[in-house]
Structures are given as structure tokens and as C-alpha cells.
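User: For a teaching handout, I'd like to show students what a predicted protein-ligand complex looks like in C-alpha cell form. I'll give you the sequence and the SMILES for nicotinamide-adenine-dinucleotide. Please answer with just the structure.
Assistant: Understood, here is the input followed by the structure.
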Amino acid sequence: MNSIRIAVVGCGAIHSTHCDAIQQIEGAKLAAVVDEVPERAAAASQKYGAQAATSLNEIWDEIDAVHLCVPSGLHHKIGMEAALHGKHVLSEKPIDVSIDAANSLIKTCRTSGVKLGVVSQHRFANDIQQVKEAAQSGAMGRLLEGDMYNKWYRSQQYYDSGDWRGTWQLDGGGCLMNQGVHYVDMLQWIMGGVKSVQAQVRTQAHQRIEVEDIANALLEFNNGAVGVIQGSTSVYPGMAERLEIHGLYGTAIIEADRLKVWKVDAEGSQLGLYGDGVNKQPTPKLEMHVPSPESQPTGAGDPTAIWGEQHRLQIEDFVRAIADGRDPFITGEMALEPLKIILAIYKSGQLGGQVIEV
Ligand SMILES: NC(=O)c1ccc[n+]([C@@H]2O[C@H](COP(=O)([O-])OP(=O)(O)OC[C@H]3O[C@@H](n4cnc5c(N)ncnc54)[C@H](O)[C@@H]3O)[C@@H](O)[C@H]2O)c1
């Protein structure tokens, strides 16, 4: 089988996670590194031994796929150009910053017959997959509440480090659209989708950003459960991100992708606590492994503290999807869900906390 020849477009903070991963994957070849700033493309080219370019127009004939590591509001534009040239597209998160832009990208990739994947690497974390399985299989009983806390910290210097950071046009939002989108996606994936939101959205601490640095929302999920989203980039020094999932039979808590608490009474023997007649459903029993409590790397306070294993797994899946002619594990359509939730939270915040349907 010929290797899939990939161009990584955008040689900033996240590009090395992609380049390192591609170089480890059998059947993938890092063919080119592209940045509109020639020095950045040249530096990546020197490090990875791949061709440097300042525009994809220089290299269409030499690639099969692009990885979009450019500012979020450019994903649809560059992704659609690639699709129209017959190239597969793996976009960094978020898919883009508006529903229209995201839909255009999805449609163009579908009609061009190319694969579209969107990075949401935490879906590849083993413990998150286990809790998703437990929640959706009924092993936790009827789901009651799902909460997500992403109390992170980003300095003003971080926002000043790129013209696009903290802007509505290219970042599309702040602590939720950029940092929180990961765990918004985990929460809605585990719980089975969000129906409506009611939010407070503020810029509380930073001086030179257009977007929010605190956002809180009350949720109703599609299955009738309720919950909370708390996102921030103004909580110093930044706390590890958490998911708290509560079903009728107990609780799962994930912190920085690791299962910290698994207290589920699979037999339902405690259910007298809720009154008679609650525990009539037989429930699947799951063996859950609660890992040792050593600390995990997290981007809570440091944007460079990104660990590459989950990216590697997602990129490997994307390469296999191209080779096998199937959809990637996370499609463009799936990546619309967290975007819709975040945009609904922004709208609710603007309207003084009105309930907004997702
Ligand atoms: N999955 C994750 O954990 C994760 C982590 C960080 C960033 N990201 C995402 O990756 C994307 C990039 O973020 P970053 O922090 O690396 O940004 P960055 O500013 O560090 O890098 C972006 C690069 O894109 C280049 N660029 C801009 N416009 C271009 C164009 N038209 N053609 C070619 N190059 C262009 C810039 O010169 C810059 O080098 C964003 O969408 C962000 O949300 C994802």
C-alpha cells in the first residue's frame, strides 16, 4: 500500500504534535509543512525533513491529505480548497467557528468524495471511552446529571502571542470555543446530546480580548438529564478539567482523562434510597479499572502541556479511514455538536440567560 502523503498546514503551537504523530504511523508520510510565514515553514521543514511551502498551491500534486493547524476561523476556507482538489481533510478543533462555515466544509468534503475528520483527541482516552460505554449501556442506570468543569488559566501574554487569539472572527470565542470545546464534546458524547442551555458569559479578567474568559451554563440533555458547564481561562493557576456523571445507580468522575471515582452499585441494592419501584430494570455489570492517582499532564495552566498519544491514535484512525474507505471515528457531522452547544451558550449569555435550544 502506498503511504498517505500528508501536508500539515500551519506550523505554530500544535503542528509538532501532528508531525511527530504522522512520522510514527505506518502508512502515513509527512510530505510537506506549510505556513504563510516562510520562516515557520522552513523551521518545520528542517526539523522534520519534509518539503516547506508557503501555500498549498505549490504542492497539490504531492499530497493526498491536509491537516489543518491554522487559526480556527480559517478551517473551512482551507479545508474546502483542499477538498475541491480531491484531498482528504483532518481539521483541528473546533471544526470552524460558525455553523454555516462548518456545514459548508462538511458538504464540500462529502460532495468531493474526500474524508473529513475533526480532532477531539480526548475521545480516544481509554477511561473516557469506558465511562461513555457505562453511561450509554445503562450500567449507571437512568442518567440524572452530567457536569463539566474546565477551570483553566491563560495569561494575557498567551492571548497577545497571536493576532487571532481572543478574537471573534478567528478564535470564534474564548474559554469555551478554544479551551473548553474538548470537554464540552466529552460531556455531550457521554450523556447523549444537549437539548437546551441557559448561560452567563463574561469577560472578567483579561484586558485585551474580545471573547469570554468565564462561561457558566445550565443544561438539559436530550434524555431529560440536567447538568452544568463551567469554562474559564481566568481561574489561576488552572485546575484539572473534570467530568462528573451521575446515574440512578451511582457516579463516575473523570479528571484530566483519568477515572478518579467509580461508585456505581450495579445490583441497585441501594436503590431503596430513592423509594420503592425504582430498580426494576436488569443492568449490565461493567468491570471498571480506577487507575492509580498519580497526576496527569493537563493544559489547565499551560497551553504547551499537550501530550501526543491521543492525537496519534486519532491521526492513525484518520489514515486507516482513508485506506479502508470508511468514515473516520470523528466526522465533521459529529464535530458540529459541541460547536452548536457553545454557540447556543453564547447566544443565551447575550440574551441575559434565556433558555436557548441547541
Ligand atoms: N487539539 C488540541 O489540543 C489543540 C491544541 C492547540 C491548538 N489547537 C487548534 O489548532 C489550531 C492552531 O492553533 P495553534 O495554537 O497552533 O495556533 P498558532 O497561532 O500557534 O499557529 C497557527 C499557524 O498558522 C499559520 N497560518 C495562519 N494562516 C495561514 C494560512 N492561510 N496558510 C498557512 N498558514 C497559516 C500561522 O502563521 C501560524 O504559524 C487552532 O484551530 C486551535 O484551536 C488544538
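For the handout, you might add this sentence: The domain at 4-122+308-330 is CATH 3.40.50.720 (Rossmann fold).
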